[in-house]
Amino acid sequence: MKEIINKLKEYKNQSGYTKWLMRYSLPYMPQIILMLVINVICSAISAELSIVSKNIIDSATDGNFVLRAIIIYLILTLVSLGLSAAISVISIVLDEKFSFGIRKNLYQKIIESTWGDIKKYHTGDMMTRMTTDAGNISNGIIYTIPNIIRLVIELFIMFGILYYYEPSLAIMSLVIAPIAAVICFVLGRKLKKLQVKVLESEAAYRSFLQESVSNLLIVKAFGNEESSINKLVDLREERFYWVRKKANMGIISSSTMSLSFQIAYIVAFTLGALKVAEGSITYGTMALFLTMVGRIQSPIIQLAENVPKIVSIIASTGRVMELQNIKKENYEKSDIKEENIGVSVNNLTFGYSEQETVLEDISLGIEPGEFVAIVGESGIGKTTLVRLMMSFLEGQKGDVTFFNKEGQTKLANAAARSFISYVPQGNTLFSGTIRENILMGNENASEAEIEEALKMAAAYEFVQELPKGADTVIGEKGYGISEGQAQRIAIARAIVKKAPFLILDEATSSLDAKTELEVLEGIKKLNPKPTCLLITHRKTVLDYCDREIKIEHKQIL
Ligand SMILES: Nc1ncnc2c1ncn2[C@@H]1O[C@H](COP(=O)(O)OP(=O)(O)OP(=O)(O)O)[C@@H](O)[C@H]1O
Ligand SMILES: [Mg+2]
Fold this sequence. Notes:
Number of domains: 2
Mean pLDDT: 88
Number of strands: 12
Strand content: 5-15%
Distance between the termini: 54 Å
Helix content: 55-70%
Strand order of the largest sheet: 6-9-10-3-11-12
CATH class of the largest domain: Mainly Alpha
Number of helices: 18
Bound molecules: adenosine-5'-triphosphate, magnesium ion
Radius of gyration: 34 Å
CATH topology of the largest domain: ABC transporter transmembrane region fold
CATH architecture of the largest domain: Up-down Bundle
């Protein structure tokens, strides 16, 4: 019973995949159909060539030399070559467009999804889905599926022609079909499982590479060079194991197919030779038959060889759809006046998993213009509370509501971020210039506004002293400047946004007391004055705040 349900589920998934693929391919349909039509014309030409050559041979046997037929043969060959070149050009362009389309779509999906859901995937895994899987799908839609359709059409045309001249031979040439069908059916299922394993092991391999390269310092600091290389080798072996297993399966199927092909050919050949000896068919028909047997059997074999490719499309489609199906975050444009914003948290409960909560039924309020500190032990849930306010995470119970002095309210959702400036914990700078980093806070900021923000964040002086000032290029995660300097750039990025609600999550943790004070003074001087929420462990910061809110045992004290 369970098995039947699973089978049904699998079938439902697969029809879902097909629908998704169809919907996705729709915009590219005209070009795909054009390619298909050209392909079919090529097949028709190749069929016509066989008939022309039959006629040439038959006339030659009767002692006639037909120049006209030879010229037609030549022209058809040239046309066919031209069309093949056209297909190559169209398919390269189409493949590029199509795979980029999927990548862009996935990237957009990742960006628009709820942060808490998407963060469950490793970046290496997401990269694999955006590159390898997207490539597999594109390749499948542009090359494999049209090729399959062409093969089927070709099969019908060739069979039809041979049937017209010699029905018994035509039927003979099909003996290979049932064998191919059985092989495909048996191998298809196994192959899909193997293909998923190949992709998963690739994602693991890539995740490891990406992570260890970005944390090179730790690898070196702890002398993990050798073990890292060994781990990479292990991961590659794992991948190689699945790749080989899948390849073996492919080899078994294609060898069986070739063997059947050879046997079928010999049988058909013998039969044809007997008929020539009997005088019941002409040499031309025999020649036609020999060409046709190949042309009927080879599409059948090629169809069987396409099974792994189809499997690969299905497996990749499943992986891409998985990301596609992640819930889009709630974005409802706010219509409240974005000035003097306060927040009230009402009976909020949240846990990263259902088994364990981090915050339980907490309530708190921050009035517009207040300067409030959130304190509590490490790991108590301060950052989590901020993530809930920012709607990066969604609470299981309760809500977060923003309000202004006019009494308008707005339930927290992605759109509410427009009135929040946020300095996250840790180094969050991008590679590029300091200016580019600051402009991420507000892409329309003027030169004067950037300067002002840098001054308020106590970063102006050190940036001025850099050889290229704000145009100095920094590396990933602020490589090239100090941790405390990176923190100040991140604060400037938040200040330049000029939002009415400012959240700083241990944003001054790397600063010395004097510089920290300068930053806090700068924030106090901001005009218009934002509501400020600071997470901190430091006494000096607390002295600056109007009030402190303490989190303890999942509750607010
Ligand atoms: N993505 C996550 N999945 C599961 N648990 C998490 C996740 N992020 C944090 N936690 C857990 O939630 C709890 C609260 O973490 P949080 O980052 O909010 O602490 P914090 O108060 O900001 O600590 P710190 O002062 O060290 O920054 C911790 O016990 C932590 O282990
Ligand atoms: Mg924290």
